[in-house]
Amino acid sequence: MKPSKRNIPAVDLSCEVCGMMPEPPKGRLTLANVAAMLPIELIVHALVVDTPLPYAAKVLVLTVTATVLVIWVAEPSAARVLRGWLHAPAVRHRRRLAAAPALWRARAVLRDQPGSLERVTRALARMNANILSIHVHQVPGGVLDEFVLSAPGSVREAELLGALHDGGASAVHVWPTTALAMADGQTRALSLAARLAHAPDELPLAVAELLRARILDPARSALEKHETGDSLKIPTAWHGPITFVRPGEPFTPAESARAHRLAELAEILTHRFGPIQPNSAKCRC
């Protein structure tokens, strides 16, 4: 049976943790309470005023009866009957948030043949997802496409994964992201190169930021590489290679090339302006 409209807000707005509804606006809550209490007050007064009870007894009966009926009957009934009206502003706000576009990063391996990207695009279009940017990398067995997607807020990760698989993609990964993802890898690399020009010892941190990766602790290198699987090693001029790890998101050839170019830039700056102290390259987080 289809639920009535007044039951919809409870489903839409109840907290997933405690199950409570949000607090309605005070103005609407006041109007709802007045509308519920006024008929009860009038009826109780009409029944009690004409009784032959003493004045003090009438006041006591009116007070107790009206209070009990309002607290136990009127207010809960008004909250249920007028729930849709009470929470209408919150419902509209929740629906606007659900309809607002969300940004996602996605990676997928496609066959290196005509029509592969078109099939993925059509599958995404069926859920109103739009491709904002795309980078293509040659990999064994096809091409690795990196997308930045805009999708309705109601679309979930599993739905995006399903759409990409339906479009013929494999090795699909999807992550929520922000507008910063619209800054392409080349722009980030140039910004970090300017940072290295002033402080070459920032190379490990710059590469970690470029790749959105973590610097691997040399003392635990073998163990952590075995656990994560996705690692990248780049040479440095002062204390050997540095390894970066990013579990579940393999490094692309373009990312590897950018990281190595940053390392070369830091080495050139080091030779030109003097050696770097070994401890200065450590993460200062």
Notes on the structure:
The chain has 11 helices and 7 strands. The longest helix has 27 residues, at 55-81. It has a 4-stranded antiparallel beta sheet with strand order 2-3-1-4. It has 285 residues and is an alpha+beta fold. It has 3 domains: 5-94, no CATH class; 100-182, ACT domain (Alpha-Beta Plaits, 2-Layer Sandwich), CATH 3.30.70; 185-281, no CATH class.
Terminus-to-terminus distance = 57 Å
Structural class: alpha+beta
Profile the largest sheet: 4 strands, antiparallel
The helix/strand series, from N terminus to C terminus, equals HHHHHEHEEHEHHEHEEH
Helical content (DSSP H or I, runs of 4+):
40-55%
Q: Report strand order across the widest sheet.
A: 2-3-1-4
Can I get a quick summary?
With 285 residues, the protein is an alpha+beta fold.
